[in-house]
Amino acid sequence: NHKCKVLIVGGGGGGTAVGAKLCFKYGAGSVMFLEPSDRHYYQPMFTLIGGGMKKLENSYKSMKSVLPSKAEWKKDRAVAFDPKSNRVETEKGDIIEYDYMVVSTGIELNYHKIPGLVDALENPNSQVVSNYSPKYVTNVFKAFEKFNGGNAIFTFPASPVKCPGAPQKICYIFEHYLRKNHKRNDAKVYYNTALPVIFGVKHYADSLWLVVKNRDINVNLSTNLIEVNSEAKKATFENIVTKERTTTDFGLLHAVPPMSTPSALREHSGDLVNELGFVEVHKHTMQSVRYPNVFAIGDCANSPNSKTAAAVAGQCHVVYRNLVDVMEGKKPSKSYDGYASCPLVTGYNTCILAEFDYNLQPLETFPFDQSKERLSMLIAKKDFMAPLYWYGLANGLWNGPGFIRKALNIFR
Ligand code: FAD
Ligand code: UQ1
């Protein structure tokens, strides 16, 4: 058995940011990470890798080099939570007892939930690809190059996802790839989304409808991928509203899997989570609604923000401060406004930098209309966000662009 003051379950973007802050304040001996992975991926780069703009090797560092050096790292996975007795059980059979806990497991990719999809992704000739997993992302650009006409279909699943813009970004990049390589005439491009909207924030949805209209991209709403037949190169979709099924052949299929929190949370954590398996927190304080010594950050929390690294940046200072408050016997004092950002890459030279809050109102950093496609925002996404993540967020030094927004407000 192990004991620790603060246990952080999951050393991804959120866990690492909060852990770095805690280690800075309390020093060695205060924080334990429970994290099974050897590698820490900067997942926002996957979109650019899929489009051939970056390499997989640029997207990760060793977990050891990313986790704060003053923290203890147990390289193991949580399999069950017992928040009533402040304990977590691990895959190797250990029990960890904590005084305070931050849950930051992120969400998992459930490719197996779509019949035929895993077989298709494992087959390098299937033209079925997916940029969500480091295991499959390097095949995406190869499939672009091999594409020789027909239907190119990009999907969005019937579940919450991380970076809800990513399923359509890769569609725009592909469409531009075709035009650059004089192959656009041979293709019909489809974005089939299970959602009833193209994007949840109207300010940006309006721009995206113009993009798809101008570029002859067919958008099918409420359309969910339910089966893949890689032999016949056919995909089956179900209309979420009418339940009507259609089967379409494809020359390329980019599939985004349904996602969920890990089974440890969904099935073995009692009332720590809501009915969907997300850690139930107060949406402004990120404190568990039932266990005051527990906080959640990032994709595994049920706070109704868009699940992005940018949201994690907006949450990490709030989680850290409120946890310190609780440790000092006070009430949580900081409030998260739901900030999230999604750099909607629309091609090799353009990006719409969406930024918004819980009310789905734009909360833009720069003093120009960010709903317009811009080269400057593509450069920001391509060359500035990864350093911001590695040197800022992962070291506990980046709390999101709120202060820049306030400073630039003098130009509005
Ligand atoms: P993660 O960073 O995923 O970390 C979770 C960690 O928990 C992992 O290290 C995992 O190994 C560990 N873990 C899992 N299960 C357990 C367990 N049972 N016990 C212990 N540890 C466990 N965000 C943006 O802001 N901008 C973007 O442009 C953007 N683009 C994206 C594009 C793609 C293709 C993808 C996949 C994501 C993108 N994101 C983007 C989203 C961003 O990567 C996530 O929102 C962010 O990483 C969430 O941080 P997290 O700490 O909650 O989870
Ligand atoms: C951000 O803070 C962040 O986390 C480090 C991202 O993830 C990679 C982002 O994509 C974005 C857009 C932000 C927000 C930052 C600015 C400067 C708008």
TrEMBL record:
<dbReference type="Pfam" id="PF07992">
    <property type="entry name" value="Pyr_redox_2"/>
</dbReference>
<dbReference type="GO" id="GO:0005739">
    <property type="term" value="C:mitochondrion"/>
</dbReference>
<comment type="function">
    <text>Catalyzes the oxidation of hydrogen sulfide with the help of a quinone, such as ubiquinone-10, giving rise to thiosulfate and ultimately to sulfane (molecular sulfur) atoms. Requires an additional electron acceptor; can use sulfite, sulfide or cyanide (in vitro). It is believed the in vivo electron acceptor is glutathione.</text>
</comment>
<keyword id="KW-0274">FAD</keyword>
<dbReference type="GO" id="GO:0048038">
    <property type="term" value="F:quinone binding"/>
</dbReference>
<dbReference type="GO" id="GO:0070224">
    <property type="term" value="F:sulfide:quinone oxidoreductase activity"/>
</dbReference>
<dbReference type="InterPro" id="IPR015904">
    <property type="entry name" value="Sulphide_quinone_reductase"/>
</dbReference>
<keyword id="KW-0809">Transit peptide</keyword>
<feature type="domain" description="FAD/NAD(P)-binding">
    <location>
        <begin position="5"/>
        <end position="121"/>
    </location>
</feature>
<keyword id="KW-0496">Mitochondrion</keyword>
<keyword id="KW-0285">Flavoprotein</keyword>
<dbReference type="GO" id="GO:0070221">
    <property type="term" value="P:sulfide oxidation, using sulfide:quinone oxidoreductase"/>
</dbReference>
<dbReference type="GO" id="GO:0071949">
    <property type="term" value="F:FAD binding"/>
</dbReference>
<protein>
    <recommendedName>
        <fullName>Sulfide:quinone oxidoreductase, mitochondrial</fullName>
        <ecNumber>1.8.5.8</ecNumber>
    </recommendedName>
</protein>
<comment type="similarity">
    <text>Belongs to the SQRD family.</text>
</comment>
<keyword id="KW-0874">Quinone</keyword>
<dbReference type="GO" id="GO:0106436">
    <property type="term" value="F:glutathione-dependent sulfide quinone oxidoreductase activity"/>
</dbReference>
<keyword id="KW-0560">Oxidoreductase</keyword>
<dbReference type="InterPro" id="IPR023753">
    <property type="entry name" value="FAD/NAD-binding_dom"/>
</dbReference>
<dbReference type="InterPro" id="IPR036188">
    <property type="entry name" value="FAD/NAD-bd_sf"/>
</dbReference>
